[in-house]
Structure formats: C-alpha cells, structure tokens
Amino acid sequence: MNHKPVNTGYIFQEIMMNIISYCPGGFEGDIVSVEADLRAGIPGVDLVGMPDTAVRESIERVRIAIKNSGYDFPGKRIVVNLAPAGIRKEGASFDLPIAVSILQKAGLFGSDKTHSVMVLGELQLSGAIRPVNGVLSAVIAGQRENAYAFIVPEGNIEEALSSRAGRIYPCRCLSDAVELLGKISEDIIPIFDFNGLSFASENSRDNETELQDDPLSVIKGHGYLKKALSVAAAGMHNILLFGPPGSGKTLAGSRLASLLPDLDLEDSIEVTRIYSLAGMLKKGTGLIKRPPCRSPHHTSSMEGLIGGGRILKPGEISLAHKGVLFLDETPEFRKSILQCLREPVESGRVDLARAGKNCWFPADFQMVLAANPCPCGNRGKDDSVCLCTELDIHRYWKRVGGALIDRIDIRIPVMPVDAGVITGEDNAPAGDYIGMVRMACEIQNERFRGKPYKRNSRIPAGECGNYIRLSDKSRELLGEAVKKFAFSSRAVHSIMKIARTCCDLKGKESADIDHESLLFAIQLRRYGDRDFFW
Ligand SMILES: [Zn+2]
After folding, report:
1. Residue 319: C-alpha distances to residues 126, 294, 316, 352 (Å)
2. The model scores a pTM over 0.85
3. How far does the centroid of ligand 1 lie from the alpha carbon of residue 191, in Å?
4. Are strands 122-123 and 168-171 parallel, antiparallel or unpaired?
5. How far is the CA of 412 from the centre of ligand 1 (A)?
6. Residue 491 alpha carbon to ligand 1 centre in Å
7. Strand 122-123 relative to strand 129-130, pairing
8. pLDDT tens readout for residues 142-162
9. Rounded to an integer, what distance in angstroms lies between the CA atom of residue 293 and that of residue 407?
10. 84: cis peptide before it, omega within 30°?
11. 529, CA 20 to 30 Å: which among 159, 350, 372, 439?
12. Ligand 1: distance of its center to the CA of 251 in Å?
C-alpha cells in the first residue's frame, strides 16, 4: 500500500479542480457538482445534497474501491456535497466523481487549476469502473457548461466520442482516473489513442432496422399496399392497415421502417441519447444510424409505452423517435394508453411530470396501426361469416378513439391475396421502393432546410399553401371528394400533404400537384369512421 500525503484542506483553502457529474432527468438532465471536505474529527462520511438510496450506498463502494486501488481512505470527517441541493440525485454514476473528489481533497493530484472536469462511472469494489447510462447526454450537457475534459468509463467511450467533444478520456479503473486527473491539473494533457474507435461501428445494428435492396420483396402481391407503404415512408405519414387476420398487415407494418433512409447527424444524436438514457445502447456502439422500429405488445404498461418509472426512463414512443411505432392489433391496447398517444403524435414530444419536476423526452415517431376490421376479424373475407353486430364493430373501433384515428393520414384495407400469388407468380411489379423513398426524402430535405420540420406530414396547416398548389381542375376534384366522403378540414390537409409526397416520389419538386397524385391521395385517405364496417 502506497502512502500518499494527506492534505488537511483545513488551514488554507485552495482552489480545487471542479469535479462535475450528471444526474439523468428526462432528455436533458442536470449537471451536478461534487465537492468533498475533509477535516479532523470522528472518521466517517456524510453525503449531503438529496442523494437517493443508490447514491447513498455508493459511499461504501467508494470506500472499498479506494482501498482496493492502493490508496489510503482518509481517516477524517468527510463531507461530500452534491450541488445543487434542490435536485434529487439518482443512479450509480456518482461513484467515481465522489471517489476522485475525496482523493483530490486528500491531495492525491494537483489542485491549482480551476477547470471543470466531468467524471462519470460506477465503481466496482475492486476499483474497476463499470459503464453507466446516459453518457452521451451527460457529455452534451457538460459541453454546454464548458467542461474542460471528460472522464468516462471505457465501456462508454464510443458513445461519448459521438458527441464530438474534445478531451474525452476512457478509464478502466479508479487509479486510471486519478492518474489522468493529475495530468489534467498539471496541464500535461495525455494524448488519447483513438485507434480502432470509429464514431459508429458498422456491426452495431442491434435495435435497428436493416437496410436491404427491396425490403418489400417479402410481401407477395399487394401492389397497392406497397405503393401506400412507400408514400407513408417518404412523407412520414401515419398509416392504418385494416383487414382480416392473415392478410399480411403485420408483415407490411413491420417492413415500413426498412424503407426509411438513414438518420441525419442531428436525428442520429437524439436517437442515440434516448437509447443511452434507457440503458439500451450496446457496449461498443457509437451513433445509431438507422431509424428505429418499435412494436410494443398490446399488454404493455403505460409506463413502458409512454415513459416514466421510479428512475425516469423513456418509453416505447421515445424509443421510436425518428422511426416507426408499430401497434399491431391496435384495438387490443388499453384505451387509456391509446388516448395518451394523441399528445405526442401532435407535438413530437412527451412530457412527464415527476416529483414536482417536469421532464420530457422527444417522441417524434411515425405511427403504424394494424387492426382487424371487426372483433371476430372475418368481415370482408369472402369465405367466412362475420356475426358481429354494427354496435360491436362501433365499440371495437371506439377503443382506438376518433382523436387518434383522425391523426392517421393513410388508411389502407388489406385483403388476403390468392394462394396462387403466394406460392407462384407475384403479379405486383417489383419496384425500386428504396430508391424512390430516398429521392423523395432528399427533395424534402432540400425544401425544408432551416425549418423545424423535415417531412411533408409535419407541415403546419398554415404553411400548406407554400408547398402545395392545386390547379382549378384539382380543386374541383377535391371539392367533390369533400362532399362525397364528408372530409373534415384536417382530412383535407392530410390529402394535400399526401399528394405532396406522391409528387416527391415522382421527383416533381415544384409546388404544383398533378391530378393523378391528388386522386391517389384521396384514395389513400378516403376511409373514415363511417366506413370501418364495410
Ligand atoms: Zn366480425
């Protein structure tokens, strides 16, 4: 055991290196400054600043980890303060900052600089550092606070590096961290060897949808459905697929995300932060590049779907941010859960009030709903009989709720295809759906540059006129459709946005909407509450 000089910190007050850490709380979280004070008295440690049980327990881990790393644990009265005191501190990422604050105060490394250094990590009793959740969010928050350097667990290094912040150092154990902090305080900044680390490793495609040449080739027949899916994918339009069991709704819904192009850098960082906060980022993963696809089961809890919990975690709707949320058998979900979706669908975020604090997570997802046409599922099927009454069917659809269905741009009946199509010749032409969707997305990226929205479905109603121009003939057609199908003004906006996407898929960039695209848009939107029992 090596004996290091122990500074009382008592006679003269030095300026200490400011050790900061991070307390997760929704998408943003808070910077927490960790300071220690050592003075003569009965040996012991007091942890103040609203620590929760897990943080309180860290003192024992810290004590043993310090000893096992070959340092003396100061035999003093130690006070560790986590500031600001008003925020409840939770999680295990305070172990390492507490340990280094105590060791700094004990004089183990220099203290003549006024740098803020962010330190993150959970300690094992051996002194080894375990990875923690939310490192990317922490580093981004630290950058905002002008942190000078970042010390992160080695297991989180790819994630931390994807923030593009400078001076990020991975640590394997407590003594690594102490050595690094010593060099930082003496301004001998070690050069970190970034060899072998890339911002996103290519084999980290878990949680992600795969990119294939033609992801729709697994769907046999269904030419119309495939076209509708590519419109939905290109414009990020919410879509409802309804039809009898076995008609291919589930397969179609689960393929949608694979049509989407890769995320841009901004979206990629947001998605990665959410997965990191949820503790779902695999070790060695950099940025998530593919749009996520989440398909929660209909028995999911409110907390699982919307987010929440004792330690606030993002729900499925946030895990589907910038990707697809696929609700198979939608009417089977609890009504209260479906009603909670309305707000995020509208605003692209979810607010979670918790212990007097308002937290939020992004939740800008594309919603894909699949449902049977009636409770028994046989309605519309040629060879089966449906005995559901009109009231049964009405009740069944009411579970989904008019408000949610109102926000669905595209509604597609999916009927079973002939057995001959599945086993033999596929009569639906194979199309370059990926290529078309990508082109349409590029047109939109260009069109919406500098705007807060990126896809046609997100154009605010008031700005529709800037991007969508109808000829007199088209205007007439739309007027007739409004009368025939009793379209609401929300439905008319939906149709115009879908028509915009149809034009983009054809590579037509001008605001003029061609007649054919408008006709197809009306067809995609025409089913309303009245039609669900066909
Ligand atoms: Zn039925």
Report:
1. 34, 7, 5, 15
2. yes
3. 69
4. unpaired
5. 18
6. 27
7. antiparallel
8. 999 999 899 999 999 989 988
9. 19
10. yes
11. 350
12. 22
